[in-house]
TrEMBL record, chain A:
Gene3D superfamilies: 1.20.1250.10. It comes from the Eukaryota. This is Ciliary neurotrophic factor. The lineage of its organism: Eukaryota, Metazoa, Chordata, Craniata, Vertebrata. Coiled coil: none annotated. InterPro entries: 4_helix_cytokine-like_core (IPR009079), Ciliary_neurotrophic_fac_CNTF (IPR000151). GO terms for molecular function: ciliary neurotrophic factor receptor binding. GO terms for biological process: ciliary neurotrophic factor-mediated signaling pathway; negative regulation of neuron apoptotic process.
TrEMBL record, chain B:
It is a single-pass type I membrane protein. It comes from Cirrhinus molitorella. The keyword Magnesium does not apply. It is found in: Membrane. Its main location: membrane. Pfam families: LIF-R_Ig-like, LIFR_D2, LIFR_D4. This is Fibronectin type-III domain-containing protein. Keywords: Disulfide bond, Glycoprotein, Membrane, Receptor, Repeat, Signal, Transmembrane, Transmembrane helix. Residues 1-20 form the signal peptide. Residues 887-902, 913-927 have a biased composition (Polar residues). Gene3D superfamilies: Immunoglobulins. The keyword Nuclease does not apply. Belongs to the type I cytokine receptor family. Type 2 subfamily.
Length: 192, 927
């Protein structure tokens, strides 16, 4: 990364950043599509505006000053999103069984897998692996589920989780794009 | 709140009044009214103490004090507790709003006072300020009615409640509570039916209801696989539409839980009676089955199936059982053997059956066997089928070949044998072995032929018969020898071959039984006329039979077959009978050949040659002859004798003719051959018509002309040879000594002109008796000689212009212009014989009039054409022509001879010729 002495490293770095940014863009599209499918199933959500706090908040993170730090923040958010998605999948499978195998269920799994890849990719881009964010404890699916005690509330919660996915994958896409541009600029300066 | 206070006051007043009316003594007020709500069940249980057994009950929605129940009930006290209890089922969830209840006792005469109001709070009380909807996640059967209520969050407005996305009419129950009622609910989707409460701007809250069916399972059947335990299975009924975890159907078999989501249940021990209960939140269904264990044996699949001994014609199959208890079970096993053409099903039985011997297999064949077994006693069903097992039987030596010999000449022939089928070859053949012997020569070294060969040529070197032996060899050995002896060759021409008619494409043959046919008969059929490697086919017929049918599938339509029957005896086969026929006749594929047409006078002889046999494709029954024109064919002959191959067409006209000859079989005519001929006269006719007839006609004409001339000789003489008077010589005109210059007398012309009426009065004309007459005659001749009067007229007009006026003057041959002139140059207009003007005429140039005057005269002449009727040309045949008449008018003028056509050379003047002989005019083309 920054200050890397190995001549091969910048190229590999750029390539990894490219891939992470591309993956983030792809994931953002997947999440958008996943929300569309969910809205098709639960059509009342078309007019629903969720209220309340964000499900994924990075209150413990210090203020991100550099792009690299922002990448670390985004990675923390994506990791939390992944945990939320896993809880969502567990809940839906428990409630509805595994018999349903439509496009929604298939894409849901794809998003989960790609989200894991993106979390791993962004970690590889950071020197300290966390980018300034303290490691957050793993999410327990029962956390904050008190108010999700009925099916309707669960549907609203699912909706909020999907919105969080869209938000943070979009954020990751932009941040990684910025990170990629800066990395390229630094490498060109080094070459000069 | 105001309404609630008012109602309380009224109630207290009523109580006071009733008390006042009850003079006999008051009923005691029920005591200790308590309310116990069951929120999921939407029921409210009331308990109280009282000595009465009849009570009035009133239930209110507390906030608006709307009465939701006003009922008189008879409730006896529980003998143990002494409490009265009654339960009310609310159509609305009790959480929707607060409910208040009071009660009073009643008998026939009196009423008690109302008990104090007891209230259960709803979720719309101020302490609960959020939005709520009730009921949540309820499961109801399809078609049921249901009420939902929405409690609006404090300080939020209410807009609507949607059920399945449709707005429903809401009723307000309290300050914050609104309710809807849905009737006849349809089945929900996978995730339930959404009921949503909305404000003007957002979704406030909602609920999900699951509408579905009771379990619909059916067909419980229990059986044993191991002769000890039980496996019960059933068929799932209709979809309950309750997919969520709480709504799934749960099963118990004889009280024991079954695995979720399965349609079978396992029990370690066999029980003769089985009960399956299928239950979901909406209800349950109960299925039963009853059977003895021995009646429900469903065996597992045989394991480890192997062929322990495989032979050419049999194999021993062995397997094992995974359940030890099977070894004592009387069972029946079924083997299914493939491939299809050899497939069969065989049953074997025995206690604990674990091996069988498969008989009746064929050598060198791949078999696939599957095995399944069942209990022989009280057979219930076949057990599971084993995995397919492959067996390949060993080879065996081939069967004997079916051999026949076919002679295509007295010295040559060919031995044929039929290919061995898989069933007969018993393994892939390596070769054929052919050997031969004769009376002079014993069996020699056999010839080896590859498996693809099915014939072998033979040549008879001497008159003795040859016996040929053929055998097939495969890796397992050599087949039995098949022998055949050469039969005597009999050409068709030496036999009376009868025509064979087919029946539906087959030949039905029958013959007189022959006592010598100890070995039966051979029916042989081969395409007629075939030589070399021919498709010879044959069948051997037992001695007892004397008929045979050659099936159509071994025959080719349109091919003539020679069918022969031979008797088989220890010696050479003997020809018994022979036929020829077609399995199906077709029209000839080629037309007759060498069709020619020869003219004989007015007849034409058509001749042709028959089509080759291979192209006949049927027996030729005859020929048809057509006369063809552009549009159609006219049948002119039908020759029913196929041996006749010529036909004479008689009486044809002298023109071109086209003939078509077609051969026909029973299937119809062929396309036909065409020949064309142009009929011509013969030499004698041509001589007669071409030469003698014109000569004869000419001769006749001459005779007629001669007769005519003779009859009219006087007229002819007068017309053509008028009598010329002799000259009157006043003096002594004795002949001089020199040669006599004979010139025709100009007077002769003068006499011909009878009425010279043309204008002597014209200006510039000077009568000169002799020359003038001569000139007139010349002018008349010019007129008569003129072939182009129009051209002449036009030319005269043109030359009348000033530019040519001199020319007119110079060259005019008119008498007026030539007066006083010594010039003899004459210019003619039109085509004229130069000799016609030379009859001693000498033009006289006269310059009396100027060019202008001449021109005027010209024009005047033309204008006076129609008036010049007085002019009479001398030649009588010109008088009939009006054009000539007109010309005579103009040409009769002194200037009409003006011409620039050509000049007569001077020499012509020196050799004057007769100008007025008719014969001369005739030869020169003048009329």
């Amino acid at each position: 990364m920054e200050g890397a002495a190995d001549s091969d490293t910048p190229v590999a770095q750029r390539s990894a950043t490219d891939r992470a940014a591309a993956l983030a863009r792809l994931l953002h599209r997947d999440c958008t599509r996943l929300l569309e499918l969910y809205k098709e199933r639960e059509n009342f959500l078309s007019h629903h505006v969720p209220d309340g706090e964000r499900l994924v908040a990075l209150g413990l993170c210090p203020e991100a000053l550099t792009t690299a730090e922002q990448v670390g923040h985004v990675r923390s958010a994506l990791r939390r999103c992944k945990e939320l998605l896993e809880c969502l999948i567990t809940r839906e499978v428990e409630e509805m069984g595994e018999e349903l195998e439509g496009e929604y269920e298939s894409l849901r799994k794809t998003v989960k897998d790609r989200l894991g890849h993106l979390v791993h990719s962004t970690a590889a881009l950071l020197e300290n692996g966390e980018g300034g964010c303290p490691p957050s404890p793993p999410l327990q699916c029962t956390e904050g589920q008190d108010e999700v005690d009925d099916s309707f509330a669960a549907k609203l919660w699912t909706y909020r989780v999907l919105l969080e996915l869209i938000h943070w994958t979009d954020s990751a896409s932009q941040t990684l794009h910025l990170f990629q541009s800066e990395t390229q600029g630094q490498q060109q300066q080094q070459l000069l | 709140m105001q309404g609630w206070v008012t109602l309380a006051l009224l109630l207290s007043l009523g109580v006071n009044r009733s008390l006042g009316q009850n003079g006999l003594g008051e009923l005691p007020v029920p005591r200790g009214l308590t309310l116990n709500p069951d929120l999921p069940a939407q029921t409210l249980s009331l308990t109280w103490q009282s000595d009465s057994s009849l009570f009035d009950l009133e239930i209110f929605h507390t906030e608006f004090m709307n009465v939701v129940l006003n009922e008189t009930v008879a409730v006896k006290a529980d003998p143990v507790t002494g409490l009265h209890s009654w339960t009310w089922h609310s159509p609305l969830p009790l959480e929707c709003t607060s409910h208040s209840v009071h009660i009073r006792a009643r008998n026939q005469q009196s009423l008690s006072q109302w008990s104090p109001l007891q209230t259960i709070p709803g979720s719309d009380i101020p302490e609960k300020s959020e939005s709520y909807m009730f009921p949540q996640d309820k499961m109801v059967p399809v078609g049921s009615n249901m009420s939902f209520c929405c409690i609006v969050k404090e300080k939020r407005d209410f807009r609507e409640i949607q059920y399945r996305g449709q707005q429903k009419s809401a009723t307000r129950l309290s300050r914050r509570t609104y309710a809807i009622t849905v009737t006849n609910q349809p089945a929900s989707g996978n995730t339930g039916t959404n009921v949503v409460c909305c404000s003007e701007t957002l979704t406030l809250t909602g609920a999900v209801v699951f509408v579905g069916y009771l379990p619909g399972d059916e067909g419980l059947v229990c059986e044993t696989r191991d002769l000890a335990s039980a496996e019960c299975s059933w068929k799932k009924g209709r979809d309950t539409h309750l997919r969520m975890k709480r709504g799934r159907t749960k099963y118990t078999l004889n009280g024991r839980d079954c695995l979720e989501g399965k349609t079978w249940c396992y029990s370690k021990v066999w029980e003769e009676n089985w009960t399956l209960v299928a239950r979901n939140p909406l209800g349950m269904v109960q299925l039963t089955d009853s059977a003895q264990l021995a009646d429900r044996v469903h065996l597992l699949a045989p394991a480890n199936v192997t062929a322990v001994e495989v032979k050419a014609w049999s194999a021993t199959l062995q397997w094992s059982w995974s359940v030890a208890a099977y070894k004592k079970l009387e069972m029946v096993c079924q083997l299914q053997i493939f491939p299809h053409e050899l497939s069969s099903t065989r049953n074997y039985s025995g206690p604990g059956l674990s091996s069988v011997v498969l008989e009746g297999l064929w050598p060198d064949v791949d078999y696939t066997v599957t095995l399944r077994c069942g209990s022989k006693q009280s057979f219930w069903k076949w057990g599971d089928e084993s995995a397919p097992y492959r067996i390949h039987t060993k080879m065996d030596r081939p069967d004997a070949l079916d051999v026949w010999i076919w002679m295509d000449s007295s010295k040559t022939g060919r031995v044929f044998w039929k290919p061995l089928s898989v069933r007969k070859s018993h393994g892939a053949l390596d070769r054929y072995e052919v050997s031969q012997s004769s009376a002079d020569e014993d069996w020699g070294t056999p010839d080896f032929l590859p498996p693809g060969n099915f014939s072998y040529p033979i040549i008879l070197n001497n008159s003795s018969d040859i016996t040929v032996a053929v055998a097939a060899r495969n890796p397992a050995g050599l087949s039995q020898l098949s022998t055949v002896t050469t039969p005597a060759y009999r050409a068709d021409s030496r036999l009376s071959v009868s025509e064979l008619l087919s029946t539906n494409g087959s030949f039905d043959l029958s013959w007189q039984p022959n006592a010598n046919a100890s070995g039966g008969y051979v029916v042989e059929w081969v395409p007629t006329g075939c030589s070399g490697l021919c498709p010879v086919d044959w069948r051997k017929v037992p001695e007892s039979d004397s008929s045979f049918t050659v099936k159509s599938d071994s025959l080719v339509a349109g091919v003539r077959y020679t069918v022969s029957v031979y008797t088989l005896s220890p010696g050479a086969p003997m020809l018994l009978q022979r036929w020829q026929g077609y399995s199906q006749e077709m029209i000839p594929s080629q037309s007759v050949s060498e069709l020619s047409a020869n003219q004989t006078g007015s007849d034409v002889l058509l001749s042709w040659k028959a089509t080759e046999m291979k192209h006949q494709r049927g027996f030729i029954h005859g020929y048809t002859v057509y006369l063809a024109d552009a549009a159609r064919l006219d049948l002119i002959a039908n020759i029913s004798d196929p041996e006749v191959q010529s036909y004479r067409v008689k009486g044809l006209s002298l023109s071109s003719h086209k003939f078509v000859v077609k051969a026909y079989t029973s299937a119809g005519e062929d396309a036909g051959s065409t020949v064309a001929i142009k009929m011509e006269m013969d030499t004698a006719d041509m001589l007669f018509v071409g030469i003698l007839v014109p000569l004869g006609i000419m001769f006749c004409c001459l005779i007629l002309l001669s007769i005519c001339c003779y009859k009219k000789r006087e007229w002819v003489k007068k017309a053509f040879y008028p009598e010329i008077p002799g000259p009157k010589v006043p003096g002594d005109w004795s002949s001089p000594q020199g040669p006599l210059d004979v010139k025709p007398s100009p007077h002769s012309l003068v006499h011909i002109v009878e009425s010279p009426e043309w204008d002597f009065t014209k200006e510039g004309l000077f009568p000169v008796p002799e020359e003038e007459e001569e000139s007139e005659n010349d002018n008349i001749e010019v007129d008569t000689d003129s072939d182009e009067p129009a051209l002449l007229r036009y030319y005269n007009q043109v030359v009348g212009d000033g530019s040519h006026s001199n020319h007119v003057l110079d060259s005019s041959g008119s008498s007026t212009a030539s007066v006083g002139s010594t010039q003899t140059e004459i210019t003619y207009a039109g085509i004229q014989s130069p000799t016609s003007l030379q009859g001693g005429y000498r033009p006289q140039m006269q310059s009396v009039t100027g060019p202008a005057e001449l021109q005027n005269e010209f024009e005047a002449d033309f204008q006076d054409d129609g008036l010049n009727t007085g002019y009479k040309p001398q030649c009588s045949w010109q008088l009939d022509s009006p054009e000539a008449e007109n010309f005579s008018g103009s040409l009769g003028s002194p200037t009409s001879v003006t011409s620039s056509q050509f000049l007569i050379p001077e020499s012509s003047e020196e050799k004057p010729q007769p100008s007025n002989t008719w014969f001369h005019n005739f030869l020169s083309g003048k009329s």
